[in-house]
Amino acid sequence: MSHSHPHPPIDWRDTGVKVIRGDQLDPNTAQTPGMNRATAINRARAGAEKLWAGTVHIHPDAKTGAHHHGDLESVIFVVKGKARMRWGEKLEYTAEAGPGDFIYVPPYVPHQEINASPDEVLECVLVRSGQEPVVVNLDIEPVERPSEVKWIDPIHKA
């Protein structure tokens, strides 16, 4: 049984799988004291339409203010260090994650990211379900005050 193609065959060599090497991440983005970020996968670098992925390195004791990311889903994979997440209407819930752990943040969940180590950099891989930098800052008095050193990535701009 033959399969007919109504359109010309796709050139999978140029439009198929892409490998972005770890030493080829794009640091050409605003950097902020206390952290370094780099884009691996986005529309410009890989042709991605529905997600963004990159690395985030957060200096010791860095804490964000309370916020959520609208309808975006986020996955954080901890490579090195200790991440503490706080979430809830008053950031009343907390959990920690270490190397090899995944953190899932659903849409609209009020949360705060924290580098729980006073002396070790927190290295993570971040994946989001979209490329728009949606962040909604919330007027919640955090249990752990945001630090002068902020956690900045493509969503948490300076």
List the helices and strands and how they pair.
Elements: H1 12-15, E1 35-41, H2 43-46, E2 52-58, E3 67-68, E4 74-80, E5 83-87, E6 93-97, E7 102-105, E8 111-115, E9 122-128, E10 136-137
Antiparallel strand pairs: 1-2, 2-9, 3-10, 4-7, 4-9, 5-6, 5-8
Helix content: under 10%
Describe the biggest sheet? 5 strands, antiparallel
CATH C-level:
Mainly Beta
Class based on secondary structure composition and strand pairing? mainly beta
Q: Please trace the helix and strand order, writing H or E for each element.
A: HEHEEEEEEEEE
CATH architecture: Sandwich
Question: How large is the radius of gyration?
Answer: 18 Å
Counting DSSP E segments of at least 2 residues, the number of strands comes to: 10
The N- to C-terminal Cα distance equals 59 Å
Number of separate structural domains: 1
Strand order, largest beta sheet: 1-2-9-4-7
What is the count of helical runs?
2
CATH topology: Jelly Rolls
What is the typical, i.e. mean, pLDDT? 83
CATH superfamily annotation = Jelly Rolls
Unreliable stretches, pLDDT < 50, 5 or more residues? Answer: none
- Gross morphology: elongated
What does it look like?
The chain is mainly β. It has one domain (25-137): Sandwich (Jelly Rolls). The termini are far apart. The strands form 3 sheets. Strands 1-2-9-4-7 form a 5-stranded antiparallel sheet. Strands 6-5-8 form a 3-stranded antiparallel sheet, with no helix packed on it. Strands 3-10 form a two-stranded antiparallel ribbon. 5% of the residues lie in helices and 32% in strands. A hairpin with a 5-residue loop joins strand 5 and strand 6 (93-97). The protein is built from 2 helices and 10 strands; from the N terminus they run H-E-H-E-E-E-E-E-E-E-E-E. It has helices at 12-15, 43-46; strands at 35-41, 52-58, 67-68, 74-80, 83-87, 93-97, 102-105, 111-115, 122-128, 136-137. The protein is elongated, with a radius of gyration of 18 Å.
